[in-house]
Amino acid sequence: MRNNVKIAPSVLAADFANLKEEVAQAEHGGADWLHLDVMDGHFVPNISFGPFIVGAIREQTKLPLDTHLMIESPEKYLDDFRRAGSDIITVHQEACKHLQRTVALIKELGAKAGVAINPATSTSLLSNIMDDVDLILIMSVNPGFGGQKFIKGSERKIREVREMIEKTGREIHLEVDGGIDTGTAPAVVRAGANVLVAGTSIFRGHEIKKAIEDLRKSYR
Ligand code: DX5
Ligand code: ZN
């Protein structure tokens, strides 16, 4: 299990003036996926980027693009993000009026579908969507910004969702996002996460490859 843990660097923490090089370094440094944080200034207080940048990143890498939509009414933009090259599209439970319909739409577009929940959202709200999703994303910070401190209570939520996943008998990724570094990764992997998103700890050090290797070593 631990050997199958995927690392998904979040480009939000990358140097955007040098994005091509940063993406190449992440890919050659051993990243499994690239995590793309889309923020609309409504669902979260910050604005990041949209499908245009996702498309530009698509041109630069073969890595699966894991697009995390922190936006209101995500159903309006699914087609744009899929066309831009997203392989996995994750929407927030809190942002969807008709979550099952939105998840079904992502799959109709040929992408893998993920559902994210904020730190204050109960895992029980996922119970009726488990049969439809390919990925659950547990936010371990309040979404909107990189570089925040990991919220400890997230470990319990990861354990709860791991149990829910086992009960389905299906393969569903369990991703954790926010404040992940060599200090916090071991406990989240122990709790059952199999995809680690990391922004600051990967892009803000001096060497991307070394940061990915160190993160991987921390939970082995
Ligand atoms: C937060 C984003 C995260 C963020 C993680 O809203 O969803 O993906 O980039 O950044 P770090 O690893 O710096 O907490
Ligand atoms: Zn994210």
Number of helices: 8
Return the string of H and E elements: EHEHEHEHEEHEHEHH
Multimer state = single chain
SS class: alpha/beta
Low-confidence spans: pLDDT under 50, at least 5 residues? none
Main sheet attributes: strand count, strand direction, barrel closure: 8 strands, parallel
Task: List the main descriptive attributes of the protein structure presented here.
220 residues; alpha/beta; eight-stranded parallel beta sheet; 32% helix; binds D-xylitol-5-phosphate; binds zinc ion
Walk me through what this model shows.
By secondary structure, the chain is an alpha/beta fold. 32% of the residues lie in helices and 19% in strands. It is built from 8 helices and 8 strands; from the N terminus they run βαβαβαβαββαβαβαα. It has helices at 19-28, 51-58, 78-83, 99-108, 154-168, 185-191, 200-203, 208-218, and strands at residues 6-9, 34-39, 65-70, 88-92, 112-117, 135-139, 173-177, 195-198. Strands 1-8-7-6-5-4-3-2 form an 8-stranded parallel β-sheet. The longest helix is centred in the C-terminal third of the chain and has 15 residues, at 154-168. The chain is globular. It starts with 5 loop residues before the first strand and ends with a helix. The mean pLDDT is 97. Bound molecules: D-xylitol-5-phosphate (DX5) and zinc ion.
